[in-house]
Amino acid sequence: MIIIIQCRDRVGLVADISRILSEAQLNIISMREHVDKAGERFFMRLEVDGLGDEAQLEDKMQQILPDGAIIQVNPVPDKKIVVMVTKEYHCLADILIRNSFGTLGAAVLCVIGNHALLQKICDRFEIPFVMIAYEEDKEISEQNIIRKIQSYNPDYIVLAKFMRILSPAFVANFPSKIINIHHSFLPAFAGANPYRQAFERGVKLIGATAHFVTDDLDEGPIIAQQIIPVNHSFTASDMVRSGKEIETAVLAKALRLVLNDRVFVYQNKTVVFE
Amino acid sequence: MIIIIQCRDRVGLVADISRILSEAQLNIISMREHVDKAGERFFMRLEVDGLGDEAQLEDKMQQILPDGAIIQVNPVPDKKIVVMVTKEYHCLADILIRNSFGTLGAAVLCVIGNHALLQKICDRFEIPFVMIAYEEDKEISEQNIIRKIQSYNPDYIVLAKFMRILSPAFVANFPSKIINIHHSFLPAFAGANPYRQAFERGVKLIGATAHFVTDDLDEGPIIAQQIIPVNHSFTASDMVRSGKEIETAVLAKALRLVLNDRVFVYQNKTVVFE
Amino acid sequence: MIIIIQCRDRVGLVADISRILSEAQLNIISMREHVDKAGERFFMRLEVDGLGDEAQLEDKMQQILPDGAIIQVNPVPDKKIVVMVTKEYHCLADILIRNSFGTLGAAVLCVIGNHALLQKICDRFEIPFVMIAYEEDKEISEQNIIRKIQSYNPDYIVLAKFMRILSPAFVANFPSKIINIHHSFLPAFAGANPYRQAFERGVKLIGATAHFVTDDLDEGPIIAQQIIPVNHSFTASDMVRSGKEIETAVLAKALRLVLNDRVFVYQNKTVVFE
Amino acid sequence: MIIIIQCRDRVGLVADISRILSEAQLNIISMREHVDKAGERFFMRLEVDGLGDEAQLEDKMQQILPDGAIIQVNPVPDKKIVVMVTKEYHCLADILIRNSFGTLGAAVLCVIGNHALLQKICDRFEIPFVMIAYEEDKEISEQNIIRKIQSYNPDYIVLAKFMRILSPAFVANFPSKIINIHHSFLPAFAGANPYRQAFERGVKLIGATAHFVTDDLDEGPIIAQQIIPVNHSFTASDMVRSGKEIETAVLAKALRLVLNDRVFVYQNKTVVFE
Description:
Chain A has two domains: 2-73, ACT domain (Alpha-Beta Plaits), CATH 3.30.70.260; 80-272, Formyl transferase, N-terminal domain (Rossmann fold, 3-Layer(aba) Sandwich). Chain A is built from eight helices and 13 strands. Chain A has helices at residues 13-23, 54-64, 90-100, 119-124, 138-152, 168-172, 194-201, 236-259; strands at residues 2-8, 27-36, 41-49, 70-73, 80-85, 107-113, 129-131, 156-159, 178-182, 205-212, 222-229, 263-266, 269-272. In chain A, the strands form three sheets. A seven-stranded mixed β-sheet of chain A has the order 7-6-5-8-9-10-11, sandwiched between helices. In chain A, strands 2-3-1-4 form a four-stranded antiparallel β-sheet, with helices on one face.
């Protein structure tokens, strides 16, 4: 059983929470907690052993936790995701492979693309591919995408190299539900063409960043980041090629963390219990 | 206040421990725990806020913990170490620097060397250097070292590139108190000349390992490990030079972890709450 | 144009080689060289710009190079591989994806498995899957595999988590052509169950190693290695899961290097011009 | 013998250079070259074996190289540096240690500080410490520093955590001679308080960058960069502490590269032959 809690901090919280578990004869296998002292915020992730009534447990917890607490016992066990792509295959293919072998931690319901290029790889894995080309009116295009996503009601929307900027209006439909992979070590090289920027600047490391999407482009809470070394012999396109390897790895890691309920979002940051 | 606990696992331990803290009006800032399921062993490290009577707290804890529990409230705040060296300066110098600026987390009482080479660097930092050359009879030499160490009664003995193998009889005098830096990624290349071995084998990464010393050479509980990439252009002596950088870094990290009471030893392994 | 050279070292080699290129009006874009001083061995990889007669160039080079020199101008541009697997999908799937999108640097001719489990993923990518179950007589099984591989005449055979030990007789059929991914940081934890070994030893890093296969199990020339950190909270199966990520990454890297003619083998080591 | 060459690219350069070496009976041990195709720029670093007349060799090279070529045979073997500091000891101490044991690759002539705090560590190593406090008029202070540096005529000036911004006028006195360590993964978090910025942004990696100083603050050619993982449990001061470890490591690496003549500067980037 997995239990996640986020609430205002106070003395005795751990004692109260663990007492409830102990009374329910639930043995704690793993307890991870974090207190944001400045924000007086408490975060906890528990793995417990034993059989318990989920609703009853959640109810008991709610009674002892401060008002406004977020408490989830076994949060959505069978998660569902929609993936959005443009032309690059590497992140999508990795997701489809894991989905196909049951190791993704979620089911891919459909892939939405604004180019037809990745139709075929979806066909190979028998996953519906929906082509929604961008029309002149961006708002109409976004409305089409929103309707399509809502028809699937996914837990998360994964931007697996979706190369269009989503409007705040779009994002507002799916708060804390959109995960993006950005091809740089944010906040360095936000925006377009980060590898070109990295090449021009002559950096010795390039990176990738998986983050939740908020209104501000590339400014949302960071989930995971990784880098690889580059040197003077790398052209901008060598950087693109190398970068794809870590983009795939970082997005995979971020999805594993999010889909295992290991990521808490608070004030544009994440608490991640790896 | 730092509290560390190691004991047999049972249901309700966290509840009981956190209740005692709560009753004492101590607020948990950081709680790290680990359960070794196979060994039914429980490990916890707490940082708490507030003023409490250490002895009383330790006593109350002891009452609710299983027999044989190890419980320490504010374990040895002003730790003391003795460093043992041969000819290489890099690890020793790093320790002396941190000691000199008060960031080591312990006081260096003395340095014991089996060569005179590192006398001068100790003089610069006004740390006693004791030269104990190895005599023909190794046992006598070891007895001399043991006596010298015991006269200082240190919390830990740090082998900062001490290039002699210590006998089981020596080690038995200081159980779980000797920390060694081995210049390879153990268990690869245990024993002598690991860089030469690494060169011969043509590895693409070399490493360093900090570990507690037990009877079996290079077989004690590992505290920290790190690697750096090498390639065909590295000679064995290039590997030695590169390796020194990570030896210094790994030993520094291991000392920080041990001296901050973040390392538990159990059955030839460590639990490290970084 | 790519040119690779391996031969005995002597004064003036670079001058002679570059003069031939200059006379042929070929501009050097990239020149990587290595001299193994102990072995008096010279290695070079050139990328040159311009149109030249390959056979003529190779001939001219041969004349000025020491006897026994290996010289290849544009070595096998369209390489072909056969992949061997057992039950684990991660390395195979990664290879199939890259093959499907034309970024592998070789064509996958067929996949040979000793279990039926990975038939389906091969079907998805329209790659022939040949099931050769191990019979009681291992020699007969190996003979079946050898015949099948020889019918495809591949440039390389990739053991993508093939969990059977190949006999020296098998290996002798494909010298310097078999690439294996071993799930440990060799030479640590050679042999069976490396993650279990790593867990028991309590290491803080686990690794993966891609290497050419020679007679001695896990003793062949290393092409690439990588590690990831682990800690006390990892069970042996957590290590397996984490390890798969780097196994995939290391094998992908090794294949890219080998298939781009960046790897030279000499005396159980590799020279890798990354 | 080390030879470094930087010039306009043309066909036959390598042939001409290596012919001269061959005629002088000099054997190439290591040859590293890079061509910047866009800039039509050629870079080479050679290590050769044998005895040659430096001036004669340089002269012969100059004759065959394009106009404006930079060619150096055994560039400044006994390099000298001046170090500038404020209050933090870690980079300075590392430099003093290496200097003291003859492994820095240069001699430290003097340390200039704008606080008295690091006087003592310099005294320990018998290195002159010159205190130049910043006066109200920054220009006067900088003039004092410039005069002091010029009196030593160093090859490089190392800003080992010198926490004042140097004016373009200051920098103009020492073009391509000032090396700085910046406590972030540039270009992320340029300017003041990078760790505070990193903490606020919630990044999962922090970095350090060693670079040459040009007029634009934190915008000069990057020599080396490195990162370490951080997480939600890191306060801004934890990041400072962790960051110091990589600041020390990155500056040490950059100095080793520069002092071994492995770094070429061209158009705000570096070519680094590691």
